[in-house]
Amino acid sequence: MGVVHKRHVTNKHRFIGFVLIGLLVYILSNTVDEWKSFQGATIAVYVVAIASIILLTGYSGQISLGHGALLAIGAYTAALTQIYLHLPVWICFVAAVLVTSLFGALLGSAAARLSGPYLAGTTLALAVGLPSIANQFSFLGGEQGISFDAGWPPLSFGEAFTQYKWFFWITSLAALIMMWWIQNLLRSRYGRTWRAVKTNEVAAELAGIHLARSKVLAFTVSAGIAGMAGALLAATINNVSPSAFPLALSFSLATGAVLSGVNTLGGVMIGAVALVAIPEIASLVADRWSGSESVASLLPDFIVSALLILTVFLAPKGPIEKFWSRHVK
Amino acid sequence: MFELINTLLIGITAGSIYSLMAISIVLVWRSTRVVNFAAGGLALASSFVGAAILEKTGSFWIALPLAMVAGAIFSAFIEYFFLRPLLKRSGDQGAEIFLPIIATLGLLGIIKTILNYIYGDRIGALPPPLPDKGFVVSGESIALSPMRLLILGIVLLLMISLTLIFQRTNLGLSLRASSFAPEISRLAGIRVDFIRTVGWAISGAAGATAGILQTTNGSGSVSPESFEFSLLLVFGFVAAVIGGIESLVGAVLGGLTLGIILAIILMYVGGSLVFIAAFLILILVLLLRPQGIIGAKGGRRA
Amino acid sequence: MLRIDNLTVDHGAIRALHGVSFNVEKGQLAAVIGANGAGKTTLLRTLSGLNKASEGQAHWNDHNILHSKPEKLVRHGITHVCEGKSVIPELTVSENLELGSLWRRNRSESAQSKREVLELFPRLGERLSQRADSLSGGERQMLALGRSIMSKPELLLLDEPSLGLAPLVIEQIFQAIRDLTTAKGLTVILVEQNAMGALKIADVGIVLNLGSIAASGSAAALKDDPAVRAAYLGF
Lengths: 329, 302, 235
Description:
The complex is a heterotrimer.
Chain A: H1 11-31, H2 34-59, H3 67-85, H4 89-111, H5 116-129, E1 146-147, H6 163-187, H7 189-199, H8 201-206, H9 211-237, E2 239-240, H10 247-260, H11 268-289, H12 293-314, H13 319-328
Antiparallel strand pairs in A: 1-2
Helix pairs in contact in A: 1-6, 2-6, 2-9, 2-10, 2-11, 3-4, 3-5, 3-9, 4-9, 6-9, 7-9, 10-11, 10-12, 11-12
Chain B: H1 2-32, H2 39-57, H3 60-93, H4 99-119, E1 124-125, E2 136-137, E3 140-141, H5 146-168, H6 170-180, H7 182-187, H8 192-217, E4 221-222, H9 227-242, H10 248-268, H11 274-288
Antiparallel strand pairs in B: 1-4, 2-3
Chain C: E1 2-11, E2 14-24, E3 29-33, H1 40-47, E4 55-60, E5 63-64, H2 70-75, E6 78-81, H3 93-101, H4 107-120, H5 122-126, H6 137-150, E7 155-159, H7 167-184, E8 187-192, H8 195-201, E9 204-209, E10 212-218, H9 219-224, H10 226-233
Parallel strand pairs in C: 3-8, 3-9, 6-7, 7-8
Antiparallel strand pairs in C: 1-2, 1-4, 4-5, 9-10
Helix pairs in contact in C: 3-6, 4-6, 6-7
């Protein structure tokens, strides 16, 4: 492991950084069209979702191939809260986080004794199994799903303020707040504890860390964050149904996490942007090259899978760490 | 009464196919300590080969063995060109243990998209070679049909062959030794790397058989987006874990158990809950008996 | 004959062997003794292909043996019995033995080897179909040695065969090693913490300290050398 040159970055610096990003988003939101607003909102969703995986896998060392299912829980909770309890949107978000956290706690206690492939397979089974429950119970809306309305922008924002821009704002704001909170958490003693357990369980236990508790906590928090991502997704697409959470979603998120560099939060934008940008780029490339429809629809998946493999081979710790260590050497 | 017997028959048939997939996964796990998620994709590719051969020759009895050979070759190819360099790198950089697993996921994606590209909307037809109308017993048609018997027969034959190979041949001894203790085996002169490739090849053949049988037992046609193959992969994995991922006998028992329980749920509860039931079974087994049905204690940590 | 020239081996940042050089004649039993961490195990592992050397050379019968895979070296007659874990517990005694001769083509020769091993260690013959994890420590060591013989070794590398064994058993094992060396004309490198026992049966001795050779010579001379006695033999 090469020596990484750590600049002296304080919390104040980081706060300013976040504010700047917020400003950037604000400016962007005013200059881009509807479609890009939608994409921006999607990126925000992915940022939160990938962050949840980085916390669980990169920091706490527990692999999950089933985060799509957690997003589904968050999304359905938000929608159900709105439909049956008629609560304001923000409360629905909170409900999503809480319910998914609870589920995460349950899942985590089961998973605490598992590792590696067992955990991977268990979460995989969850990702495949959970969304289809919606077909069994009618109040979950079946295949068509149920709708979630994130509301309209306040009239005071003016006529030109479209709904998609509103989604972009909500998701970005939520994402920023979440990321601020997450990175604080990862820097706190909780984050350090998770890292310690991941690096060497025996040593951590000897140092007085309660292994199971730490792991379950990581799962709980990660699930809560994923629940938020799910709720944000529901807000963006206005509807939650099983088809929004296929197995491919969990795989995409895992890929996004690997592309970002699973070990650190810093690169999370890379993965999120990649997940949204790749289909765009792929269809452009396909149009230019072959004009064949099948290539156009297949290219994104192919590129994502290929990128995943390349990243694992060439930059297993993520492109950012690779860049740093090259730079410093 | 008949319903119960029918359910059991359906469950055992499906379960035996899951067992094959589970065997495929266990073989790779034991020799390489990696869960090969791409196994589902390999089974898919092999099934397409089987369908193509069936189209050319019109004979299922030629198509199946050749598809198994194809599966073996694909699998060995992946082990040699993909996994070996990957493991070497993971070893060097001390990277995360789950990375090979994720890499096999990426491989699965690539296989799927390539198959999609080649076959597109076309599907491969694998109709059952034997009639699958149930025999008539006391005036009622039961779920046991010649096709079902064939499936059970093929699976049984494969299990017996594998057991004989593993327990009674030198190759089998090398396979077992290399997976238990690769370093000691090297020092005894065994070409562990080659043996590992052989293990993967056998795994590929088992997966191919599972894929083809699953198709003939199900929709009769294979397409790149077949849900059946995701199903096969997940259930095969669950079966492997339930059985104690270290043993082939466990894989068989795990598969049968899973098949029967799922058939019961399908019959008496509802189709959409089948997946979540598999998940719950998995969690329950891992909680109550983490080493699986057959596994020995203390071997759960990868 | 075994020729080692300036052998240097690193474990990451730590240098385990510093330019070690020595020769062992064919048919000799060389005892390699020294404290923990002296590099004895590293030496054997490098000779058998498990570890990579950073510098230096090693030749067995004029054949360069560095940077080869272990399984290849076995076919050249180099067999290494690791410390402590040389037996596969999940396999039976018989299977463990056969493991050693799997690479050999000649079935009848392998069968002959097995008969020899069972003659040397009759206890193994009584337990042929039992799993190896049901054996006692001494029996496991016999099994490990037996398996090494099944590989038709010319150069035998033994890593602490006496570890964890009762004194009486240690005597048996050492005697067996000595008898084997003489009877089969083997060249043996015996790494041991039990310095006295090793030097007693050896022809030559090498003392390793922190990765370098501290002393070497005939085993008898080393045994009587007061400096060696004080440092390694405890009296």
